[in-house]
Amino acid sequence: MATILQFDFPYPGPWGEEGARALKDLAESIAAEPGLVWKVWTENEAEGIAGGIYCFADEPSALAYRDMHSARLASFGVTDIRAKVFDVNEGLSAITNFKIA
């Protein structure tokens, strides 16, 4: 069953295109994570928060990534990390155009 992982945390920037350039290597690393289907990068410069919405093929992959990424963020000095895991109701989600792959 597909699993959604949501992260958000305080973030001082960079934002937008500058952030895309600065975090390219991290994005490439995340793309290679076991079980990852896709990630949407989220940012709210006005509130100083960033994070992401991830779709994993299964819950064990999502939980393993949550633990690893929380530790990685903490090693960067990030605090107040929020991570939530959700099961996907694939039947209803298919009606509203959700696609696993």
From TrEMBL:
Q: Which Gene3D superfamilies match?
A: 3.30.70.100
Which GO MF terms does the UniProt record name?
monooxygenase activity
* InterPro entries on file: Dimeric_a/b-barrel, YdhR
Q: Oxidoreductase: is it a keyword of this entry?
A: yes
Q: Which UniProt keywords apply?
A: Monooxygenase, Oxidoreductase
Could you tell me which Pfam families the record lists for this protein? ydhR (PF08803)
Protein name per the record: Monooxygenase
Q: Which organism is it from?
A: Microbaculum marinum
